[in-house]
Design goal:
Chain A: Keywords: ATP-binding, Kinase, Magnesium, Metal-binding, Nucleotide-binding, Selenium, Transferase. Chain A: This is Selenide, water dikinase. Chain A: Its EC number is 2.7.9.3. Chain A: It catalyses: hydrogenselenide + ATP + H2O = selenophosphate + AMP + phosphate + 2 H(+). The structure holds two protein chains of two kinds. Chain A has two domains: about 140 residues, PurM-like, N-terminal domain (60s Ribosomal Protein L30, Chain: A), CATH 3.30.1330; about 170 residues, PurM-like C-terminal domain (Phosphoribosyl-aminoimidazole Synthetase, Chain A, domain 2). Chain A is built from twelve helices and 13 strands. In chain A, the strands form two sheets. Chain A has a seven-stranded mixed sheet, sandwiched between helices. Chain A has a six-stranded mixed sheet with strand order 1-2-3-6-4-5. In chain A, a hairpin with a 2-residue loop joins strand 2 and strand 3. Chain A is globular. Chain B is α/β, with parallel strands linked by helices. Chain B has two domains: about 70 residues, TusA-like domain (Translation Initiation Factor IF3, 2-Layer Sandwich); about 120 residues, DsrEFH-like (Hypothetical Protein Ychn, Chain: A, 3-Layer(aba) Sandwich), CATH 3.40.1260.10. Chain B contains six helices and ten strands, in the order E-H-E-H-E-E-E-E-H-E-H-E-H-E-H-E. In chain B, strands 5, 6, 7, 8, 9 and 10 form a six-stranded mixed sheet that branches. Chain B has a four-stranded mixed sheet with strand order 1-2-4-3, with helices on one face. The longest helix of chain B is centred in the middle third of the chain and has 16 residues. Classes of the chains: A alpha+beta, B alpha/beta. At the A-B interface, helix 10 of A face helix 1 and helix 2 of B.
Chain lengths: ~350, ~210
């Protein structure tokens, strides 16, 4: 086992390190957008991957994601950062082909740590069926790691994040609460069991869940990351739909309820709340559950809007992947609030 | 009073430390937490609300907010805390004093009636509004009365008692002198003091929040 320097290594990382959605929206709105008919998904929708059509039956998916460490072990961090970056391809319904490393690392630090990070990342790229084909590294005082991923997809089979149908069932393929667990761990308040559950969830690639949901009548799909379940869900509902969520069906890491009561609360979760809190109606929902629903996820699961008739079968298959998942709600006609949690 | 300087510390540290400090504190104990960002203020408020503590915040600058949390459970002062975009709030002259007066907030009453419509209803509404003002946890610094509003602070008005209550709680009651002369009410003023348009203009331009019933 390599020598670790945990103090420098892990400092409120993962998707909790993301810029707030409100700040970001203000900046992005000012950028001029060039129209290209082959850019099927770009930055005027809320997706975080671009899909570009090359021929009638072939498009490429391009994504990028990187962040500071959220766990103490560098190898595990590499796995999680890679799983998280690969996830954007799967959220679109695409397949991974190649990936490039994005590395920020202090020259003065033990290079074995970097080696472990890259090894963890490489293994996940291979598991995804892709090839690690290079990368770019910067000497920086704080560590960051991630991937730029290239994948392919059939232009007619892209899963956008906002094309739900009224009556759809909403599925969530991983438990929520990994942000809360990592925060609790950061301040020394997490149990080993909770950390293990979070790591198991974060390091699983969304390939398997994506392959399952593609077999059914899936209408929309996104992955739950730094903006938390509710911001991603609000984006999915667009202006046209309202999601009705059954709070008792939400899969989450059990210890999170206690950790939320201990106020292991991140700034990112509060930013998420500020961003969409007004669009969400909570009925008899506990403080802890609200926090779990706003919790920023690192390498979170897929949020899938699927024909209600298929949802039961898909759920049975998803359960075999070994993570807690569930049918968490339904899509209704747009109402005053975008999301009702009851 | 417990004082915590949490500047430079990331969430959740300020919240956890404030919670720890208050955990075994007796009723009436106040914890003052200095933080350097609005999100920390909001997270502290969430903690205070959830624990049933009372909460107040004073914004000194964009990087210095003084949060006061006290173990009282009653009379909690809830201060509006908006989204992260509200950081510029810090520049406004909005701050709380200990007794629930909000600096920079003024109420302007320019008529004896509230809203437009039936006059009798309007009078009833205005009386009810001024009474309701006396019951608020957060009160304006000043109530300005002019034109038709000048009648409210004078003999014969059924809001005199409520305005006196406000005055006792530290709210300044100012009635326009020109208006009192015009309506021949100068001898009949029962509560507060007389003011002029210079002061009225000054108060209104300096206010951060103006309430107009």
């Amino acid at each position: 086992m390599i020598k670790q320097e945990p103090v420098v290594f892990c400092k409120g990382g993962g998707c909790t390190a993301k810029l707030g959605p409100s700040v970001l929206a203000r900046v992005l709105d000012k950028l001029q957008k060039k129209r290209d008919p082959n850019l099927l998904i770009g930055y005027d929708s809320s997706d975080d991957a671009a899909v570009y059509r090359l021929t009638r039956d072939l498009a490429v998916v391009q994504t990028l994601d990187f962040f500071p460490p959220m766990v103490e072990d560098p190898y595990t961090f590499g796995q999680i950062a890679a799983a998280n970056a690969l996830s954007d391809i799967y959220a679109m319904g695409g397949d991974v082909k190649t990936a490039l490393n994005i590395v920020c690392f202090p020259e003065s630090m033990d290079m074995n740590i970097l080696g472990a990070i890259l090894q963890g990342g490489n293994e996940k790229v291979q598991e995804a069926g892709g090839t690690l084909a290079g990368g770019h590294s910067i000497n920086d005082e704080s560590i960051k790691y991630g991937l730029s991923v290239f994948g392919t997809i059939h232009p007619d089979h892209i899963l956008a994040n906002n094309t739900c149908h009224v009556g759809d069932a909403l599925l969530l393929t991983k438990p929520l609460g990994v942000g809360i667990v990592c925060t609790a761990q950061h301040v020394g308040g997490a149990s080993a069991q909770a950390v293990d559950s979070a790591i198991q969830s974060m390091s699983m690639i969304n390939k398997y869940a994506s392959e399952i949901v593609r077999k059914y009548r899936t209408h929309a799909c996104t992955d739950v990351t730094g903006f938390g379940f509710l911001v991603h869900l609000c984006e999915m509902m667009d202006e046209r739909f309202t999601a009705v969520i059954d709070k008792d069906k939400i899969p989450y890491i059990q210890e999170c309820k206690d950790y939320a009561e201990e106020f292991y609360l991140t700034a990112a979760a509060q930013r998420n709340r500020n961003h969409v809190g007004g669009k969400v109606q909570f009925v008899d929902t506990s403080f802890a559950m609200e926090e779990i629903l706003f919790d920023p996820q690192t390498s979170g699961g897929l949020l899938v809007s699927m024909d209600a008739e298929d949802a039961g079968k898909a759920f049975e298959e998803l359960k075999t992947l070994g993570l807690s998942c569930n049918i968490v709600g339904t899509v209704e006609k747009g109402q005053e609030k975008k999301v009702i949690v009851r | 009073m417990i004082r915590l300087d949490e500047r430079g510390k990331e969430c959740p540290i300020p919240i956890i430390e404030a919670k720890k400090a208050l955990e075994n504190a007796p009723v009436g104990e106040i914890c003052e937490v200095i933080v350097d960002n609005e999100i920390a203020v909001q997270n502290l408020k969430k903690m205070a609300d959830h624990k049933g503590y009372s909460f107040g915040v004073q914004r000194k600058s964009a990087q210095e907010m003084i949060v006061r949390i006290s173990v009282s459970g009653e009379g909690s002062q809830t201060v509006q805390v908006d989204s992260e975009d509200a950081v510029s709030y810090a520049d406004c002259k909005v701050s709380m004093t200990e007794d629930g007066i909000r600096k920079g907030m003024i109420a302007v009453i320019s008529s004896g009636t509230m809203g437009t419509g039936d006059e009798k209803l309007g009078k009833t509404l205005m009386k009810g509004f001024i009474y309701a003002l006396t019951q608020q946890d957060i009160m304006p610094e000043t109530v300005l009365l002019y034109n038709g509003g000048a009648f409210l602070s004078c003999q014969g008005s059924d809001s005199v008692q409520d305005l006196k209550t406000l005055e006792e709680k530290g709210v300044k009651i100012l009635t326009c002198g020109t208006c009192l002369n015009y309506y021949e009410l100068s001898e009949k003023l029962e509560v507060g003091t007389v003011t002029n348009l210079y002061e009225i203009a000054e108060k209104e331009t300096a206010a951060s929040i103006i309430i107009r019933p």
